[in-house]
Amino acid sequence: MNTPYLEIDLAKVFSNTQKLVKMFGDRNIDITGITKVALGEPKIANCLIAAGITSIGDSRISNIKRMHQAGVKAAFTLIRTPSMTEIYDVVKYADVSFNSELSIIAELSDAAIKQNKIRDIVLMVEMGDLREGILEQDLNQAIEKVIPLKGVNLIGLATNLACFSGVKPSKAKMDQLSRLAEECEKEFSIKFRIVSGGNSANFNWLFENTDLGRINNVRLGESIFIGRETLSRKHIKGLYLNAITLVAGVIESKVKPSLPDGEVGQDSFGNTTTFVDKGNIVRTILAIGKQDVHISGLTPLSDVDIIGSSSDHLILDTTRSPLHTGEQVRFSLDYAALLSCMTSPFVGNSYI
Ligand SMILES: *Cc1c(COP(=O)(O)O)cnc(C)c1O
């Protein structure tokens, strides 16, 4: 296998998924498995499904199309509110879409009627994180306009917290979402099938409370692939942290000084760096850089330190355990690092 590559251990992804399905299932919460970090890779989607997930969500309609065309059998939810230019594909490939704009919902309805379909929609409610969502006070008015649309069927409410502003999905926020769901149901004599409370940040809420109200779904990505909840990035007991690791190759390894020689200005990214004089050290260069991976999200799985990086080079201090050209170094990744590697055309994937 050419380096660099991601080593994706499907048995570990499977195990993480199965454990989460059980943990949440025991509390009557369904999981929508979020595949966006894996670009909708069908092997990964099928792994989640084999582990007990029946609904797959992705932020990109192209990823959903990819899974659909690969024959992945699941209910697909588009979790990013659709743009005007993807309406046709949303109706064609997604079973459910999350929505926050009436103009888009009206287009979805028209397109669905043209395709002889009725598409399920979920309304996103803005509850403080200030990304997408209808303001609470505008919700009734929105539902009033959605109900008469013949091509769409309103099946529930969802909210997204702890993403843009880091607002916690507290008990108060979740109770408020439950209350909103009940008020809307009463006002319009409808019954919601789904009340989706959040993402991998909802872990503490789930295990610190017994009354989960009307919440019956969460959308999980990071906890499945990384094994952590996302409010404080705590390890979820029983889950693998290293289901996916990065492998990069050594292209130079030499004893060199730890301090640069010469007058120092800005580096290639416009930063001015200060270095500590540790005398001579073993400096090892890996053939991977900022163009491939969000470097700060890497943790070496051997006894080496990251000194820094440029576009195409990652420089390590390997004095404690020297490495030779041709050897490989392995890293665990955070979500940002995983996302960047998955989207780099220079980083391969190897499945075990
Ligand atoms: C990405 C995303 C998720 C999944 O978040 P994780 O932190 O990976 O669990 C859930 N909902 C929405 C709307 C998202 O965009």
From TrEMBL:
One of its GO terms (molecular function) is pyridoxal phosphate binding. It comes from the Bacteria. Its cofactor is pyridoxal 5'-phosphate. Transmembrane segments: none annotated. It holds the Pfam family Ala_racemase_N. The keyword Isomerase applies. Keywords: Isomerase, Pyridoxal phosphate. Residues 8-226 form the Alanine racemase N-terminal domain. One of its GO terms (cellular component) is cytosol. This is Predicted amino acid racemase. The lineage of its organism: Bacteria, Pseudomonadati, Thermodesulfobacteriota, Desulfovibrionia, Desulfovibrionales.
